[in-house]
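User: Quick one: structure for sequence A, then sequence B.

Assistant: Sequence A:
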Amino acid sequence: MLRYTMQRIFLLIPVMLGVMVLVFIFQYVSPDDPALIILGAHSTEEEREAKRDELGLNDPIPVQFFNYLKTFVTTGSLGTSYRTGLDVTRDILRRLPTTAILAFGSVIVSVLLSIPLGVLAAVKQYTPIDSGLLAFSVIGNCIPNFWLALLLITLFAVNLRILPTSGIGTWKHWVLPIIVSSLATLSQQIRLTRSSMLECIRQDYVRTARAKGQKEWIVVFKHALRNSLLPVITSVGAALGRLLGGAIIIEAVFGIPGVGLYAVEAIRYRDYPAVMGCVVFLAFVFSIISLLVDFTYVFVDPRVKSGLLGKKKASFSKTKLSA
């Protein structure tokens, strides 16, 4: 298990390097002049050239990338924002708790609702309940989140005046953003849980459990549900990584000062260090979430752990035979 963990951690290194190379290339091919963005149109050419020398923009691209990578490895800094003049890493980390509340709240709501509803749809297959849940999941997955956000703001904030339109002052400010951001994940997980449950329900071990006289709820939740959770966990991990990376549209519509809104403002003002920092941060979050999802497989499905132990025993046997 330790060897598997170390292998997965070491795989993060080429992923992060690849992301940094790509975003650095995109910055290089951009026609915008960072010195002009920082100093403004009223600056002189001498001032801009001095700023380029200060930022190291006149160095060769490999040298610039090496310096960027060296700064990140030694200090954890993702550069300095052109717009605010502050460290990008600190800007992102300062906004991360706000985004984390939105991300975890949305994922918790979607998981608490989708798994029971998906199990219900699988157990009541081809009934009106199943058809209604499938229709809801299809419609929920097709509704654009920005359109739903504006609709809910109009209804609950403008007409009924029971919820605020933007900000993060109280718990009421989180109701509409969490509903909007959790709808797509909820819809996907209902269908995923249903299809995975239907596949497990038809397995021999489920029929054997029923033949032994087990109660139906024990058969469904203890035998079938646990073995059908792997694709659901993968979906939850992807949704959590996407939301932690910054729910750009949701935060922009509701005025939530998180990582997503920070990325939008960075793109709007052509703040390239901030844009690069957001992309690298998003890649890092996705990699960490994928790593945690892989670890969760071991605890949810014993077959995964048995497979890892089997590989370890086979490796040990080969080593012993070669010796």
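Sequence B:
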Amino acid sequence: MKILAVGDSYMPTHYFRQVFVNLEGTEHDVIYLQVDDRLPFAPGTRSELRIKEYQGAPEELCKNMAGVDVLVVHGAPVTDAVLDASPALKLVGCARGGPVNVDVEAVTARGLPLVNTPGKNAEAVADQTLAFLVMLARGFPRAQHFLEEGHQLNNNWEGAKFIGSDLRRHTLGLVGYGQVGHRVAHRALAFGMRVIAYDPYLDLELFGEIERMGTLDELLERADFVSIHARATSENRALFDAVTFAKMKPGSYFVNTARETLVDEDALDAALTSGQLGGAALDVVTQSAATGRHRFLRHGNVVMTPHIGGATHETLLQGAEMILDEVKRFCAGEPLRFVVNPEIAAR
């Protein structure tokens, strides 16, 4: 098999090299390509217009596709032209949870299975969620602002103004109990928290020792901390709006490391302003053309990061490992695990 592994500025080829090295020198020929993000690319064809969040130009991939059996990418654009550049192509892999840079329709039309890496960032996002919970409980944002303004504590007694809370003895409510949610639950239990969860799409037995709530309202009434881990859909857009925030316990905390579309940000801002929420921690917010300090940061009880929940070396390495596993399965004639177009794999 001839395998082309394409890296980009976020996931350079060295992550693929670390795990694909075991294939080198065997019956497989592994080639690595680092895309040049300076190359001009103006989408024009239907296939090119169907992709987004890509880096590089299809022409660069096309020049390296001769005889390629397996194409592996992270963020490189995979279009009609790229797929047609190698009649030998048998498998396409994308080391992302959502292969938005791949024309899935075009891949499927050619009868090619497309594999991806769902949940590769789950551990990293779960870690960040716990970090957020600790920061909110202990009032770290306010303490950080205190230091940024040039203040300092003159003695231990003045530290009383920053007394916060442990996580233990408090209840964490998880909205969504999938790849990230259940990992957050296990971490929170280790911190001594009570954990409840709401996810109408999962079977009861999957919750184990976590108490499952029958409705979202039940969870909101009981939780001291509410953390979202739901998949964004058209049905749950603005799931957390003014009505939802009003149902939360006064002074409770809100965490979002999932998707910004799940939150009505005006309602969140109002809940922070009124004191209905004791604080919020956000890794995702709506992108805006506005520059300068984000409006949420005027609140002294808000933590924000620029959508970096999955931005760890281990996450990228795991993505490469998951793709490698799929390649090995494919070469051995074994069933693939994470197929975006299962109707093809079933043929």
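The chain has two domains: 2-119+312-345, 122-304. The first helix runs from residue 13 to 20.

User: Thanks, that's what I needed.
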